[in-house]
Every structure is written in structure tokens, then in C-alpha cells.
Amino acid sequence: MEWNRIEPGKWTPAKRSNYNLLDAVSRNTIQVYPGCWAAVMLTMDNAGLWNLRAGSTERAYLGQQLYFSVLSPELSLRDEYNIPDDQLLCGIVKDMPRPKLYTI
């Protein structure tokens, strides 16, 4: 994980122009202080379902986590299960079509 920018205040799309994309600091944890935001760049080394979460169970339980899927071109149940039909989606993905169903 590489952090590209940490700033106080509210994030806006205009902040993207300030990201450090050339020599970002590589580490597996970052501190995000109250009233601040952080831009993080992740590189996944394999397909599957990934969990990005807060370091403490209490904070993860309160919703400071997210799951995202890196799709495999194989679409095989050997690698990953299908997204459940009752899975809640939010943000820009809520109106997007679901991925193709995986098979054995």
C-alpha cells in the first residue's frame, strides 16, 4: 500500500492534482487523524475478494472497512464465489450490472 496524500479538511476531486504518484511512501498502515483524509494507492497481486479495514476490531465493526473484488479472467468458482443476490451495493456500483456468474 502506498499513501499518496494526507491532508486536513474535506476531500474534493480537485485534490487529485496534488497526489504524489512518483515516489509515494510504501507501508502497510497509515494514520488518518480526525477531520483529515488520506489518498491510498493499492496494488493487488492476485484475483479474489479483498478486505480493506481499520486496524482495530471495534472500528471495523462500526463500518470502517470495505470489501472489493479483483475479478479473475477465469470466472471459476475454484477461485471465488459469486456475489450473493441480496448483497447491498452503494455508491457508483449500485446501478452497475452485476458481474457474470462464475462456474465450476
Automatic annotation (TrEMBL):
Q: In Gene Ontology terms, what is one molecular function of this protein?
A: copper ion binding
Q: Where is the Plastocyanin-like domain?
A: 7-73
Q: Which domain of life is it from?
A: Eukaryota
What the entry lists under Pfam families is as follows: Cu-oxidase_2
Record-given protein name: Plastocyanin-like domain-containing protein
| Family label | Belongs to the multicopper oxidase family.
What InterPro entries is this protein classified in?
Answer: Cu-oxidase_C, Cupredoxin
Organism listed in the record: Salvia splendens
